[in-house]
Amino acid sequence: MNLKKSHIILILAGALLLGFIGAYTGVKLAQPDEGIMEQAATDDGSSIFGNGDHEMDDEIPGNMVKVSQAFSLIQNNYIEDIEDKQLIEGAIEGMLATLEDPHSSYMDIEMMSQFNEQIESSFEGIGAEVSMVNGVVTIVAPIKDSPAEKAGIRPNDEVLSVDGESLEGLNLNEAVAQIRGEKGTEVVLEIRRAGVSEPFDVTIVRDEIPVETVYHQVEEVNGKKTGIIEITNFSENTYTEFEEQLETLEQEGIEGLVIDVRGNPGGLLNVIEDILKQFVPEDIPYLQIEDANGNRTPYYSNLAEKKPYPISVLIDEGSASASEILAVAMKELGYDIVGHSSYGKGTVQQAVPLGDGSSIKLTTNKWLSPNGEWINETGVEPTIEVSQPDYYYTNPIIIDEPLEVDQSDEPIENMQIMLSGLGYDTGRTDGYFSEETKEAVEQFQQDNDLEVTGVVDEETAGLIEAKVVEHIRNGEDDAQLEKALEELYQ
Q1: Are 337 and 382 in contact (CB under 8 A)?
Q2: How far apart are CA 428 and CA 419, in angstroms?
Q3: Catalytically active residues, by annotation
Q4: How far apart are CA 88 and CA 94, in angstroms?
Q5: What angle is formed at CA 223 by the lines to CA 258 and CA 246, rounded to 5 degrees?
Q6: What b/e string do you get for 38-55 counting C-beta neighbours within 10 Å, with b at 16 or more?
Q7: Strand partners, 201
Q8: Can you say how many angstroms the Cα of residue 267 is from the centroid of all Cα atoms in its chain?
Q9: How are the residues of the chain apportioned to helix, strand and coil, as percentages rounded to the nearest 5?
Q10: Backbone angles phi, psi at 233, to 5 degrees
Q11: CA pair distance 388, 90, nearest whole angstrom
């Protein structure tokens, strides 16, 4: 299958982007939305929240004098020199920290500059979206075809350290600064993964992360021409790309459509609005927005009727935010949602300029489904739940000593599952290195011009992992897509 896979669970080392959910180690943060809500702010810092001057002085509580006293106390008496800027930014970050909201953060001038570059073209980094979950930097999803995806970084992986330096105590922006870097440079992430007994290191070579977000192809299913559109994130040009590619598919006479948002971490609110207007008819809202006072505003399209062909949507645990807006709206419209439950982000952020080039990214609203459902922290449940083959979810084969007959360990179980997925009969997949497993290893080594020893050393382990990556990236055994296509015309 030629369509590239954004949902792939790979085995090697990855890239990181902090973004729409939290931040991209590339960096891509949620942009102020001008479609659903008022524009958040102007370039000079004036905003729907007030401005950088003193228009809101009358609303400032009296005990703010304590902040001024603390500032003066530190400034005049602290044993070491400290810059005013450092104190002020620390105070802002402290206020945001009390919200206990992983999606609200302070972006300094450098981060805003990086953000503005990335929403327009491309950026350099590892290419994975992260958030702060219970004080730990956590992967939301790797970006399609990024170093992170190719390295096997997965949704819900926890990043404990960068190049041997612990991230404990750092805020999300500080952690991002440690992870991101120039194209061609190397970074080592210490990863903690559910189901793996010990943390492990992943080495990633940073690269340029292009902002190409929509891919399409046509498959023949039971004699019917079926379109598949994959959306990797919702950025500035995504709607234009989507509209053009959907029009191309419809001109080719498709009789059904699968929209794939697996591994899509979200993006710009106005973009998903425009896409949903292509599918949700005018008699029901495609989205509702709820403000801090509980007031709800529904939003409608001008579409007269639904598409004349069946549609399915593919999701997984890496589908978040705007992807979930799409999935739940299509679900409530009666379409099948195939895969695994999504991430669960039901809030909207606005980046509000502070007048000096820095901004606060602040959660200002909830988004709700057409029927008023809030999926925050629960996600969108699929109508058809499907798992990928076991080898899609394997972990790196950690080699301290070569693996051989009569040993029993977790890395052996991973290796057996990988070889089985590649078509080699290991006899078992419980972590015991049997004679049948040895024969499978020998056959793999012979097929790939390695020395035939039946022992798994670093070279053999690395090639097994690489072959699994290649297998998945080629779309082999994509049970979720196969099920979506199978059920489309039922």
Answers
A1: yes
A2: 11
A3: 321, 345, 349
A4: 10
A5: 35
A6: eebbeeebebeeebeeee
A7: 190
A8: 10
A9: 30, 25, 50
A10: -165, 170
A11: 45
Q: Between these two residues, 57 and 467, which has the higher pLDDT value?
A: 467
> In this predicted model, what pLDDT tens digit does every residue of 175-231 receive, in sequence order?
888 998 899 999 999 999 987 888 999 999 999 887 678 999 999 999 999 999 999
Q: What is the mean pLDDT of the chain?
A: 85
Domain span at 85: 61-101
378 and 406 together in one domain: no
Domain CATH code at residue 368: 3.90.226.10
Q: Which of 9, 31, 3 is nearest to 19 (CA)?
A: 31
In this structure, the answer to whether residues 468 and 353 fall within a common structural domain is no
Cβ atoms of 415 and 217 within 8 Å: the answer is: no
Q: How far apart are CA 137 and CA 167, in angstroms?
A: 8
Give φ, ψ of 201 to 5 degrees. Answer: -95, 140
Q: Would you say 350 and 33 are in contact if contact means Cβ atoms under 8 Å apart?
A: yes
pTM of the model: 0.77
Cα–Cα distance, 483 to 225 (Å, whole number): 16
Asked, for residue 240, whether it belongs to a domain, the answer is yes
Tell me the angle at which helices 269-276 and 322-332 cross, rounded to the nearest 10 degrees: 20
Determine contact, residues 391/416, Cβ cutoff 8 Å. no
Lookup: tokens for 255: 């009789």
Q: Is residue 10, in this structure, part of any structural domain at all? A: no
**Do 408 and 442 have their domain in common?**
yes
